[in-house]
Amino acid sequence: MKRYISIFTVIGLLSCQATKTPPSSTATSTQSAKQMPVTLAEQEEEEIPVYHAAETILTDLIHTKLEVSFNWNNSTMNGKATLTAKPHFYPSDSLILDAKGMDIYEVVLNGKKLAYQYDSSFLRIQLDRTYTNKEKYTLSIQYLAKPEERKIGGSAAITSDKGLYFINPKGEDKNQMPQIWTQGETEASSVWFPTIDAPNVKTTQEIYITIDEKYNSLSNGKFMGSTKNANGTKTDHWKQDLPHAPYLFMMAVGEFKIVKDAYIRPDGTKMEVNYYVEPEWEPYAKAIFGETPNMIAYFSKLLGVDYAWDKYNQIVVRDYVSGAMENTGAVIFGDYAYKNNRELLDDNDQSTIAHELFHHWFGDLVTCESWSNLPLNESFANYSQYLWDEYRFGIDEADYQAEGEAEGYYQSAKAQGYHELIWFDYESREQMFDGHSYNKGGRILHVLRNYLGDEAFFKGLQNYLTTNKFKAAEFHQLRLAFEEVSGQDLNWFFNQYFLKAGHPVLEVSQEVSENELILNFKQTQDLSLSPIYRIPLKLAIYDGRGVTFKNINIDQKDQSLRIPIQGKLENVIVDYQQSFFGKMSEEKPQEQYIHQFYHGTRYRARRDALLFGTKISNAASNELILDALKDPFWHIRMLAIEKAVRLSNEQRTAAYALIKEMAAKDPKSVVRNAAVNFISPKLEKDESMALNEMLIQKDSSYLVVSSALKQLAKIDFEKAMVHAKNLENEKSSKMALGIAQLYGNYGKKEQMSFFEKIIPSSRLQGFDQLTVVSSMTYYLSKQDIEEIEKGLTLYQYLKEEGNNYTKMFIPQSCNYIVQSIDSKIRNLEEEVLKDEKTNPQYAAQNRKLIDRYKIIQEGYKRIQ
Ligand SMILES: [Zn+2]
Question: Ligand 1 centre from 172 Cα, in Å?
Answer without folding.
Answer: 33
